[in-house]
């Protein structure tokens, strides 16, 4: 059962912003992962975090995607 008192750290991201953002490493498209509040780059195999509704588009801040995440893209 979900804790309804726990704050949801996932902030809404402007859909228009998501349309124009690309991976800074590959310049390829990104996929929004709502569950993890990240933007995924299939070409770079990286997940860029979204903090307080702001995508952090720095490769140093990105984490590598695991095999299961890559299969979902």
UniProtKB/TrEMBL annotation:
SUPFAM superfamilies named among the record's database cross-references: Trm112p-like
One cellular component term from this protein's GO annotations in UniProt: cytosol
Family as reported in the entry's similarity comment: Belongs to the UPF0434 family.
Protein's UniProt name: UPF0434 protein PUV54_05815
Organism: Hyphococcus flavus
Biological classification of the source: Bacteria, Pseudomonadati, Pseudomonadota, Alphaproteobacteria, Parvularculales
